[in-house]
Every structure is written in C-alpha cells, then in structure tokens.
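User: quick one - fold this with phosphoenolpyruvate bound?
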Amino acid sequence: MTKYIYAFDEGQKSMKDLLGGKGANLSEMKRLGLPVPDGFTITTEACIDYLSQGQSLSTEVKTQLVDHLAAFSERTGKTFSSDSNLLLVSVRSGAKISMPGMMDTILNLGLNDDNVKKLAEKTGDARFAYDCYRRLLQMFGEVVYNVPMQAFDTYFEDYKQQHKFDNDAAITAEGLQEICERFKEIYVEEVYKPFPQEPLKQLEEAIEAVFKSWDNDRARIYRDLNDIPHDIGTAVNIQEMVFGNSGDNSGTGVAFTRNPVSGENKLFGEYLLNAQGEDVVAGIRTPKDISTLNDQMPEVHQEFVDVTKQLEQHYKDMQDIEFTIENGKLYLLQTRNGKRTARAAIKIAVDLVEEGLLTKEEAVTKVEAKSIDQLLHPNFEEKALKEATPISKMGLPASPGAATGQIVFSAEDAKAQAEAGKKVILMRPETSPEDIEGMVASEAIVTTHGGMTSHAAVVARGMGKCCVTGCSNLEINTMAKTVYYDGGELHEGDIISVDGANGDIYQGEIKTVSAEHSEEFANFMKWSEDVARLDVRMNAETPQDIEAGYNFNAKGIGLVRTEHMFFGAERLVEMRRFILSSSYEQRVEALNNIRKYQIEDFEAIFRLSGERPTIVRLLDPPLHEFLPNSDEDIENVAQQLDIPKETLNKRIVDLHEVNPMLGHRGCRLAITYPELYEMQVEAIMGSVLKLKKEGIACKPEIMIPLVSTVEEFTTLKDKLVKTIEKLEEEKGDKVDYLIGTMIETPRACLVADELAKHCDFFSFGTNDLTQLTYGFSRDDAGKFINVYTESNILKLDPFQTLDKDGVGKLIEIAVDQAKKVNPNIKIGVCGELGGDAKSIRRFNQLAIDYVSCSPFRVPGAILATAQSQVEESE
Ligand code: PEP
Ligand code: MG
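Assistant: Sure. Structure tokens for the protein plus phosphoenolpyruvate:
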C-alpha cells in the first residue's frame, strides 16, 4: 500500500519531492531537536492522485488520516472535540519548490460551536477562543468554498467602526462572539449549507481545498513565471496549533537570517504581539523590528537568535523562518532558503565561502544565473514602479534594462532629437537595418511585432540596450506619430518608461537606479570561471560592445555579424550600389568602395581581440533587408546612385522574395556572387596581416553561414583559400586561421560528418536552426507561441530555451558525428540559446567547447556554465 502520510519524525530534508519543502524542513527541524509543534504531512503523491482521479480523497488517504490522527492524539494527549484537551490544527500547503503566498492555509481547524465554549472556559480567555473561531470561519469559507474575502471583511470593519474599536485587538470577547454568529450566517448565505461542526469533516474538506489550490490561477501564473512544472503537486501539512494570539506574552513573526535585499549579515525580520500569522502579512497592524523583541522578551529573543544561527549553519544558506511565541515559549513553524535579490545573493554566497560554510563550487549554485542581468543594467526604483501606470503588459522582455524617454516614431527623428540632447525611445511596428542609427541614439526600443529573435531584439541585446518587442496591444501610426493603447493615446514627445526585464511599458517617467559592480561580484564571477568547463564568447561587432564583453571576461568572439557593419548611412549607399548593380564590373566597383570600411572595422575588432579567437561570419541576411522601402526612400536612393527611379523600382521588384528568410541569403549569396565573400576575406586577412606587422598576433576564424550541403561549403572554401593564398603572396607573410561553418539548417546537422571533414569549426546558429526545424518564423512566431505554451502544447518557447527533443536532438547527432570524423573540430553555439541558462545545461552535456551570446548576457552565461558543470560532476 502506498504510504501517503508521514509524521514529522518520519521525514527529513532530502524528502522534498514527496513532503514538499515545508514538510521536509519541519521534519528536519524536528530531527535537530528544535521546538516544532507536532504534526504530519500528506504527500505530493496524494495531491497528484487527487487532482488526476477526481473530486474526493481516496479511501486509502482517509484511512491513513484517521490512523495518523489517532497516533497524533496519543503523542499529544489531545483530540478533536475533546472536553478537556482540545486538538486544533493548522492546514498548510507546501510544494517542493516554494511558491510564497500562492496557495492556501487554514488555521484553528477543529473548532465548533460547542468546543469553542470549552476552550474559553479552559483558558479563561473567551476573547482568545472566539478570535480563533472567527478566523477559522472566515478562512474556511474563503479557502474551501471561495467565499469572497469582502463578504467577511466588510462586516468585520463595519462592526469595529460602529462599536468604536480602534483595532482588532481592542474587540471584546462579546464582540467577537457576535461576529462569529454573523460570520456563520454569511457562510450559509454564500455556501448554502451550514459551517461543518464535525472536525474530521473540516479537516478532509480543508485538505481537498489545499490540493485544489495547486491549480488556482495565481499558482499557475507563478509557476509559469518561475519555470516550476505544473505536474509535481503540493503536499499538505497538518500541525498542532500554537497560539500567537493568546495574550501579550505571545506573538508571531517572520525573519530572514540575513538581509534579503542587501545581503548584510544581520537578522532581518518583524513580529506582532498577540497576533496570528496572517496579521503580519495583511498589514493591518504595523509589525515591529525583530531586534525590539529583545526588550520585550529577552530570553525568547536570545533563543530565536541562536536557532537562526543553527539553521543557517545546518542548511548552509540564508533562511526565511516563521515563528510563533505562545505564552513565552518559542515555536518554529517553517524554515526555507530565503528569496533574495541578485545583489544579496552574490554577497551572501561570497560571505558564506569566507565564513567557511560553503565551497566555491557550492557558492556558484546559490545565485540564479538569469538574475545576474539585474546587476548589469539599471532598474526602476521599486516604489516608483508600483505607483506607475502601465500602458502595455503584453510585450516580450527582449533586452533587459530600464529606460525613460520621449517617444519618437522614426530612426531619423530618434537621431535628430538625441543630437538635440533629448532622451528618446524609438517606437516602431518592427525595426530593420535602416533603423540602426536611430536605435543607437535611443534609450530603448519598443516594437509591436516580432519576437525574442527579431531584428530589434538581436540588435538591442548586442548593444546592451533596453528593448521590448511584440507589444501587440499597442497600435503605432508612424505617419500620424501616435500610439493607441487600451485607454488612451500618446503622441510624439510624450514620455514613457520601458522595463526590459519583464516587457512592461508605463506612462510617464519612473526613477531608475543604476547598476554597480561590487568586489564581491568580481570574486564570484572569477570562481564561476574556475569551475566552468565551457568557454563563453560574445556575439559582437562594435568596439563598444566588444569592450563590454571583454570587461565581462568573454573568452573571445563567437560571432561577428558582418551585416551589422553595413548599417551606417555611407556604407548603406555602397551596399545598395552592390545589390542594385547589374554587372560583375559594377559589383566589383561597389565592393572596392566597401572594402575600405571593412578593413577599418576588422582592424578595430582584431586590435581589441588580439590572441583571443574571433569568428567573423561572412554576409548572411537576405538582400532585401538593405533595400529602400518607402516611396521617399526609393526616390532618395535613386538620386544617390544616379539611376532612374523606374530602373530602381524594377530591380526592387526583381529582388523581391516571397519567403526571404528561406531565400537568397547566407552562403547562397556567395555561390551567386563569390566576389562578395572574397572581398570580405581579403579585408579580414588584410587587417590581420597589418596587425601582425605591428606585433599583434590574432586568431581569425572565418565562418560561412547557412550551409546545407557539403558542396556549398567546399566550393566557397576553395575560392576563399585561394584568395587568402594570393593575399599572403602579395604581402609576403602568412596568417594562421580557421575556416568553418554555422550549422543552422536541419540538413547540415544530418550531414555533419561529411561537413566536419572540411571544417575546422562548427557553430550552431540556433535561431535559424529552431526556425527551420519547427517551420516557425522567428520573426512572427511571437503571435502564437504564447498560446502554445499556455495550453501546454509547447512547454517552453523554443527560441528562448532549447527544445531538447527536436532541435537538441539534431545538435546531438551533429556533434557526435562531427567528433567521430574530426576529433579536433571546435564546436560552439552562437544563437540566442547560447546565453540561456537552461539550454547551457544541455550544451554542457555534449562535446561542445563554448557558447557565445551578446555581451551583457556573458556573466549570466558564465555562471550557468559553472552551475552546469557542478551539477554534472555531482
Ligand atoms: C542563428 O541563426 O542562430 C544565428 C546566430 O544567426 P542570425 O541570428 O544572425 O541569423
Ligand atoms: Mg542565422
């Protein structure tokens, strides 16, 4: 028979899967001999069975419940409905991963009309007895039968006002008795049956309600936000009540063993005298700082301080502890690893190592990798944020940061206004390469279309600039320079604030706090690097971004996207000249003009990279991205290139593709126009040879993108090797270089062994690989992916976190095959998944050498690689 219930002295901290965090830790505290009220835990398995099988507790659970209550009574000498020794219990949820406040709790369970009188007689405190009863009536009604909170609260508050009671504690025993009578009537009015007088019935209904609360909306949303699986269920803890509301020698509180905001090593908490747990949370009375307990109950305070130290030492982590004092005696109701800010997490981890409690390997597992972002970008001040008015909560957090500025609707306006000294936020339906200068000039970028790998998202992340994409509730009119949202309209120049951490947009200015890097942060990151196996490189091309990435200790550059180099106004003209040329000679002439820019760019990049490996990807995107769109643009370009507008229009029509992302891009461009890659390789190698003369040795790695067949690769490689040899001969010097490919089509994964014979390196382009594996457009999938994830058709957005079963499988096949034929091949990942902690865990299990991501994701990726390695070695 399955064991569904464990007494507290049968469990321990390692049993979180079955007993939930709260249950396992209550058991553990009991084992440590700490003052924990007696009780037992109904397992998560019972919850999963209940939720899957139907609407009542199984006979097995009911039978085991009765047995445990009997044993419980034997241990405590108390029973439900007893005349002399009344047993009252709390019923609390407790999942494996803590979900503070998301599920339900019932206190004082076991009271009824009859035994409440006996409790009053026995304690000689009728006020206390009826205070417990009114709380039970309300909590039971709310939790078990969803009676709206206001139904009880409105009456309670009116009653206090009418009878001139200043606060809850001032209500007399008679008053509370009257309130209980009315609460029972409210209960009947709402539930259509009387409050159950039989304690066992109360208990069974309460257990069922806690199981059901696993599936309430707020719990589901919390789990989605925190990546907690929906199928692990909650345990239920039944614990003998201790009463913080039994007079002024009693109380209740919550404390953290260290400050959860700053990490300071000082007890941090608050408590209320003569109160029960929910009073502290509800904020009806202002709790007192924990240190003042020393004045009121010095012995209890000392005992509590000692216990907090013991628990922290035992768990080797900062603890969040709930306690109750009943008539001068301390009881512990919960301990768990406390939630904390990223800043506090780093300080606590570093301090615990210095205090000898943690090893460096253990310390790196104590900070959530994705929380590191909080430390690298400015954030909104918490208080100001709470008071702000949101205009969109539908956007995707494409690039973190917090920014405030005046809205503009075109890149030109962004540039002009920024030059006039204004802080601007660029709002566009979507961005394109032409917008680059406007993006650089803006504090943040907001788009209504596009997902996490759209142009705006990728470019902004590279720049470390705040960006929110896919705000589908906003309607931008770039002509009228207005944006509509549900409830209003904003015009050019109006101020908004953009939260890149969660994708929310607000009206008006919100105060920000800037990022700062402590010595602890530097130490912590150094330990992470020491522990990690995978290297972390960056995806970057501008000197500013490259410097940022190297400041975060990137080991090299995993991807220079050369197309980003053509976005500046002058370069764009030359690029357009190349695309629109109709003869080889004209194209070569245009390329000769571009070459000088490319040499400058590569020289700057290699000067910064030096001996660190640097992958330069040859031109990749569809040509139409460089073409003018609007009539006005077309007119301008025709003038710049000195060609008739009609000819230009015809050429644009010729170049039009129905599916540009599947079209003439990547290596396909160079198969038709080899001179393009030849020019780029000459520029790369030319700059490397120049630097060599100055005594700067470089490690160039040339990447051919979007390869599907071995012949595509070998055809281009042969041409490029010849170009390099010719250049070496001209310059009378040699360069060491690698030549490889980006693996981003499913076919390339399947022929990886053949490709690997000719490649020095592979780098997985997971953005395109995901797009092509699913057949989901990376630019448009945002429109439906949230529906897929909400309805569990997809567990996670595969553009943000590796799809292990599909895309991950292709990568695994490719890595295995490639290593078999070319054990020395260097393998990396440079799509957005290269910076995602969960995906990195999988990459760390494969024979991959590095991951690469945008500069501001480098620290989080370094930490994730360290954590993956610790996990694996365990
Ligand atoms: C990719 O496809 O994963 C990649 C890194 O290239 P891009 O995002 O530039 O297409
Ligand atoms: Mg790609």
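One thing worth noting: The mean pLDDT is 92.
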